Please model this.
Amino acid sequence: MPEETRTIGYICPVCGQAVIASRTAFQLAAGDSTLPCPCGKSELGFHQLGDRCEVTAPCLFCAKDHRAVCGNDALLRKSLLALSCPASGLGTCYIGEEGQVFRAMEKLEAAVDKLRLDEQADQRGAFLDETVMAEVLGELKDIAARGGVRCACGSADYGVKVGYSSVDLTCARCGATLRLSAATPDDLDDLCVRDTLIIPGRKESTL
Model:
């Protein structure tokens, strides 16, 4: 029986290329490791902390590393883990099943292309894509009006924080957060097919 593998992806903030590789579950859990970009100027790092792992990812948006700690069970088994930049909401790395990671990376590359075009034209606005953000907020309002937003802890009370390329829904009871991407038209399409939005609940929250 082949050993279970995890696909890992991020975009190098120095050379701009997508870095995607596979690691076995044993490699990730056995000790500290890195996934360097072929350019040699950035890397994704994994630091084991017993039953947890600290992930350090380079960020395109703010040009510094972001760190997050997740349980090894989620690291090795969840279909998709996403670490994102607190300032922009853009993803910094994805870990999970191959198909899920490749789809997430495609969306991230589209968002990064839009960001680069805006920077070249000196047209960076309040949001990465103002049209997409407006549509996402409108769709979120419709879902909320139908009573479709709630937390796994049982609460239906939540707060909304609008970022540069994402919207965070935070449970008023347990503090857990659900991040909705609002960077590309694909993000809007993904939201439009959802009847409900479930905040994961603090005990289930990961990266």
